[in-house]
Amino acid sequence: MSMQMAKFLLVGCCCTLLRAQQASVPASVLETPSANEFHVDGRCRIHEMVATPQGSREHVYRDGGICSVDAVQMSSRTETDISATQRKRIHVKIQEHTFTLHNPTTERVVFVLEQAVPKGWQIDSDPQPNKVEGTLATFMVTAEPRQTVSIHVGERNPPD
């Protein structure tokens, strides 16, 4: 953990900001996050706002001790859909990965994971995201002090 990160945790000012993997979040969507949140994107980058003499600015960094993500696992299969007297076969592609999130603090935190969903795909996870807006799926995962948690994210094409 960097010295700068430790300072923010000690004063309870771990203010963070999240952005989608490949696109900026519109300013109207941005909110002031809780001091006990870690915002991470689909590539395990941690986003936070830091105060500078010129005002607030976004600080984005990686810390494998806080967030790691497995390589994407790709698979495909044929599914059959029967309606009335018609049988329809659909070729489905699936991509899955698991995020491992570690709370390095002495307080409960919420990890806010925002996963960009490719165009034409949909989230196929259990649990489902807390929110989906456009091509951005948001998962919220609570971790107790020093606890490590995992969340599995699956995507499928074509959608159901």
Number of strands: 11
**How many domain regions?**
1
How confident is the prediction overall: mean pLDDT? 81
Structural class: mainly beta
Secondary-structure element string: HEEEEEEEEEEE
Low-confidence stretches: 1-32
Q: Treating each run of at least 4 consecutive H or I residues as one helix, how many helices? A: 1
Radius of gyration: 18 Å
Keywords for this structure?
mainly beta; five-stranded antiparallel sheet; 1 helix
If you had to describe this structure to a student in words, what would you say it looks like?
The structure is a single chain. This protein has one helix at residues 3-10, and strands at residues 37-41, 45-52, 55-62, 67-69, 73-83, 86-102, 109-116, 122-123, 131-133, 136-143, 148-157. It is mainly beta and 160 residues long. A six-stranded mixed sheet has the order 3-2-1-7-10-9, with no helix packed on it. Strands 4, 5, 6, 8 and 11 form a five-stranded antiparallel sheet that branches. The longest helix has 8 residues, at 3-10. 19% of the residues are buried.
Layout of helices and strands:
Elements: H1 3-10, E1 37-41, E2 45-52, E3 55-62, E4 67-69, E5 73-83, E6 86-102, E7 109-116, E8 122-123, E9 131-133, E10 136-143, E11 148-157
Task: Summarize this entry quickly.
This protein has 160 residues and is mainly β. It contains 1 helix and 11 strands, in the order αβββββββββββ.
